[in-house]
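Q: Hi! First time asking for a complex rather than a single chain. Here are the components, and I think there are two in total. Is that enough to go on?
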Amino acid sequence: MPKIKSIEELQKLREEAQKELKLRMDTGTVITVGMGTCGIAAGARETMHAILEELNKRQIDAHVKTVGCIGMCVYEPLVDIEQAGKGRITYGKITPDRVPRLIEEHLINGRVVEEWVVARMQENANK
Amino acid sequence: MRELSLHILDIVQNSLEAGATHITIEIDEDLVEDRLTIRVTDNGRGMDAETLRRVTDPFFTTRKTRKVGLGLPLLKAAAEQCGGRLTIQSAPGQGTTVTAEFQHSHIDRAPLGDMPASLMTILLAERPVEVRYIHRVNGREFVLDTRELREALGDVPLTHPKIRQWLYEYLRQGEASLWDASPAGADQTLPEEG
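A: Yes, that's all I need. Here is the structure of the assembled complex.
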């Protein structure tokens, strides 16, 4: 069966990726999406998908990861944005249609979207 | 849940919570026998007989934050309303296998849905896990094994933006290849887009 993409391609990508890796680990942004039953039922997978699309579209390098139930199920889908040196903000009810504005405001303009915030944590000052 | 792929995502989350480091996801679509079987096998901590007995009870959960757990009960209901069933095998230290069977053509059977999106969500899990994914449709097969991917990638994580974009495309092509027009000319029923 013809396969358009192959694992060999990955090895080529690996070299490109390696170069940028260190930079990202030092200064990166981490986006976390809650993915318990509550999150999944509320559409968290689509939210995650929308985040990946938006990051690709705008060429933003950010680490995206998923976790289990965060415990504020009523606010699902929950999305957490953590930026080095800027602490961590948890946003609630982030449906896919809210993702473009969230990415634009928070990651590009550097402004917290106050009306969607459900929790915030300051970066540990002693770190 | 609107899609079986969302149930799969949910069951895999249970595996992750159970500390699994290896998870096998099998989807078997047999249009001749009219069966769709989903099996998730993990090497997590497993369950004792008492937990196993209660795990499909919606008012049972191991979580401390609240008193209900709906993942397995929802999947059980979904299977049973489609002429199928849910079976769970588990023992402490032995991991867990969850098998959900459906009548493929049952009118109430939710579509499999967006498996690439579910798999991406699993591959981006905070705790890294090795996943072997096997999707069979009438003898055709698409297999993804994260160990092969990691071997090719070395120290570059699957979560790297460039890699994750490649992965998503790879999954979409793999899934689509299962439903390419069959060379044998068999009149397969193509999946209806949601």
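A: Helices of chain A lie at 7-27, 37-41, 44-57, 99-108. Let me know if you'd like any chain examined more closely.
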